[in-house]
Specification:
Aspartate Aminotransferase, domain 1; 16 helices; seven-stranded mixed beta sheet; alpha/beta; 2 domains; about 375 residues; globular; four-stranded antiparallel beta sheet; Aspartate Aminotransferase, domain 2
Length: about 375
């Protein structure tokens, strides 16, 4: 059988987690919380399962959850949407990204992505018969050159994928970026896929600039969000997509043949959580900023150069003064010899620029972060 994705193997996340387990290293590589899901949310899940809500939900989502998502969008971004027509609950944000790409991309279409990029974008584009056009962002600022983006647009360009707050660079888009993006989309009649899974995790008082916050931008957008990131339940694989009704019709045509529907008890539990404890979402930035600062302060006397983290639950370290190893080899060294698992950034590029930068996840208990930093400070 001929492979449809001949250049893909086991993901770097699986590789580093396996190495961490083998060497009993502190795992700051894969992006999942070490702490548990809120008790109230787990209790609601148990309640709904015990009450027999264990069959298929409507394909687009449980109405109560669709309504709470619409209410959240209104509260956070001052956008009024129809919960029935514009919200679809998905089995994780990755499914939402995949379906949005399949809905938009036809053979020979081009989609602009910014490297370092989440590794699901390109395979989904290729499976749709399209081509990912990569624009590399580099350390330490990972800033988008919008003239370079304009130069990359051709008559085959169909869409642009953005991710803010950005994994793995930890940077956030600014208003000047939004203005430039909107002009390009309008000038060339392009669509936008906005990956906003870390939307509620912005630091130092910054406000997340969502595609939902601009009417003209939203009119061309699929906006993807993650309950797993927001409620520390990545294993539930719960996400959603918000889009204008015309785009959502096409999204749902494909969604119904990918997962059809998502985990019913979890949808009901999440609807209650959003309604009864809205403060969880509002306090998420403060919660993770504390984690960022614990790790940053513990690494202050290390030989690493810490790059500013504006959002997400990641921190980037430049190790140029420590080693001349490439980042993959350096991460393997850290696991085997130092006892800390990290992620190399080069794997998120089509053509890596040679920056010596690694990513640490600080969605961990404070004690784990301090213990890992103590090991890294010995270098």
């Amino acid at each position: 059988m001929q492979s449809k994705l001949p250049n893909l193997g086991v993901s770097i996340f699986s590789q580093m987690t396996a190495l961490a387990n083998e060497h009993q290293a502190l795992n700051l590589s894969q992006g999942f919380p070490e702490f548990d899901t809120p008790e109230a949310l787990k209790n609601k899940l148990n309640l709904y399962s015990a009450q027999g809500f264990n069959q298929y939900s409507p394909s687009s989502g449980v109405p109560a959850l669709q309504q709470q998502i619409a209410d959240l969008v209104l509260r956070k971004y001052a956008l009024t949407i129809s919960p029935e027509a514009s919200v679809t609950v998905t089995s994780g944000a990755t499914e939402a990204l995949y379906v949005a790409i399949q809905a938009l991309v036809s053979p020979d279409d081009e989609v602009i992505v910014f490297d370092p990029a989440y590794d699901s974008y390109q395979p989904a584009i290729e499976l749709a018969g399209g081509k990912a056009v990569h624009i590399a962002l580099t350390a330490p600022n990972y800033q988008i050159d919008w003239q370079q983006v304009a130069n990359a647009i051709t008559n085959k360009t169909k869409a642009i994928i953005i991710n803010s707050p950005h994994n793995p660079s930890t940077k956030t888009l600014k208003q000047t970026d939004i203005n430039a993006l909107k002009l390009l989309l309008e000038e060339h009649d392009l669509y936008l896929i906005s990956d906003e899974v870390y939307e509620h995790i912005c630091f130092d008082g910054a406000t997340h600039l969502s595609a939902l916050g601009d009417d003209a931008l939203f009119a061309r957008s699929f906006v993807v969000s993650s309950f797993g990131k927001t409620f520390h339940c990545t294993g539930w694989k719960m996400g959603y997509c918000v889009a204008p009704e015309k785009l959502m019709v096409e999204f749902r045509k494909i969604h119904q043949y990918v997962t059809f529907s998502s985990f019913t008890p979890a949808q009901l539990a999440l609807a209650d959580m959003l309604k009864e404890q809205p403060n969880h979402v509002d306090e998420l930035s403060t919660f993770y900023q504390h984690k960022r600062d614990v790790l940053s302060n513990a690494l202050a006397n290390s030989r690493f150069t810490l790059l500013p983290s504006e959002g997400t639950y990641f921190l980037l370290l430049d190790y140029s003064t420590i080693s001349e190893l490439d980042d993959v080899a350096f991460c393997e060294y850290l696991v085997k010899e130092v006892g800390v698992a990290a992620i190399p950034l080069s794997v998120f590029y089509e053509n890596a620029p040679g920056d010596r930068v690694i990513r640490l996840c600080f969605a961990k208990e404070d004690a784990t972060l301090i213990a890992a930093a103590e090991k890294l400070c010995q270098l």
